[in-house]
Amino acid sequence: MDKAETHQHYVPQFILRGFASGRSKQLHVFDKANSKSFKTAVRNVASEGGSYDAEIGGVTHSLDPFLSKLEEHAKDPIRKVLTTRSVRGLSVEERASIAVFVTIQLLRTNAHRRQFKHMNDMFRDAIIQRGGDPYNVENFKVLDEEAARVAHLRLIPGLARDLAPHFVDKSWLLYSTLQKHAFYISDNPVTMYNTVNQDPNRGTAGIAVPGIEIYLPLSGTLCLGFLCPTLEEWIRDGQMHADRLGVPLSLHDFITALDGNGTLGLAPESVMHQNSLQVINAEQYIFSSNGDFSLVLDMLLISS
User: Where in the sequence is the domain holding 71, given as residue range(s)?
Assistant: First the structure.
């Protein structure tokens, strides 16, 4: 099978267009591999030949039609969010379409596939360290790069079915910023953070972990957030108690956004935090609507 026969995007073009600018509607791109930036058309980035094609039993199969169908279902609801700058008008069906789309976006990237392969390698090494033969362990298979890619593709539909309800059940809100402090997006754009539930001994960035915050930028000025419902409860209770006690605490803008009546405008330092998550999460490429990659350069300098 010639994987170069098809050109498939692992970040959909309709999302990337929200970050294009200028008359030619091009993206500013930063390549972490060589610390270089350039401009190009949306169609030229976040794609790979035959990324979702696999040969199984001598027959070529493709996940691309399945993914394209899900993108089509989500395209209009996401455009609705961008146009109205609100999530309040979304129907139950539209929310479900977006939830499935975001779940798939989390799972479909090269970064997630490499994580899957890394886990397989870790199990293999652990078996060897204990004196076992990983090729003779029941219900375990050592995977090379291509076998891991195919196995990962086969897992995506089932994982999406299991994980999408967690997105539906989150508290949804829309964040906004000014174009001069624009949001980044990367080739691995669904990011997670946990402000209130930090643990020095284990990670707390999981879809169903208490306190989780999940983000997907939709344009240079809008980012969709999915928060653990406990955070919404804490915010509403905090404002209620502050009002009752006459304490000068204002979470009203946050509550307005949680009600879906507008966006939560972020200060530049909060946008920087969001963008830092994209930089950390990126497999290789970061995209910007205004070409300001100073944060990327600073982060790469610190980590080098």
Answer: 3-290
